[in-house]
Amino acid sequence: MIGATPELLVEVAGREVRSRPLAGTTPRTGDPETDRQLADELVASTKNQVEHRVVVDMVHDTLLPFCSYLDWEAEPSIVTVANVQHLGTYIEGALTEPTAHVMNLVKELCPTPALGGFPSTDAISFITTNEPMERGNYGGAVGWMDAKGNGTFAVTIRCAELSEDRRTARLFAGGGIVAESNPYAELAETQAKFQAMLSAIVRP
């Protein structure tokens, strides 16, 4: 598995815990003025704000029982990566004593609604029945941890699974579907997300 994920699922350092969910996406064009306009439209988009809020609320509500203090940005900010721009929200807090092991938090958070839908039980059941592929490690988490329960895990998006001989790669990308989603816009978003891996592994 290789990847270029921009999304922090959870980080634990002593009593400190952080997450930065990303949901809601618009392309980058290479032109700064056009990209600023697209970013403004992303922030103003009800559809993308709803998509983002569902994920932020789930991450917040999941972390809250483990924390003595939890804070988050009132409004999402723009997170710019190579090919796209996202809505992102930092969530930070202090874990109660004894502190939760980072892997316990990973298990509670994964998958977020951006990958597994919401309400999670019904959505995952629907995906399992109707999605015509095996996700493998896509949509899971990858990271590190130590013996004290500290660690950092990212969401496995913008990723690829390599074959054993390293001669072929299976790429993964997708979009968050909500009531106001446009299929053509979601397809264009997914194609833009693929470029993160394609630009790294495809050479002329």
UniProtKB/TrEMBL annotation:
Keywords: Isomerase. Residues 2-193 form the Chorismate-utilising enzyme C-terminal domain. One of its GO terms (biological process) is salicylic acid biosynthetic process. Residues 15-34 are annotated as: Disordered. It holds the Pfam family Chorismate_bind. InterPro entries: ADC_synthase, Anth_synth_I-like, Chorismate_C, IsoChor_synthase. One of its GO terms (molecular function) is isochorismate synthase activity. It catalyses: chorismate = isochorismate. Its EC number is 5.4.4.2. Belongs to the isochorismate synthase family. This is isochorismate synthase. It comes from freshwater metagenome. The lineage of its organism: unclassified sequences, metagenomes, ecological metagenomes.
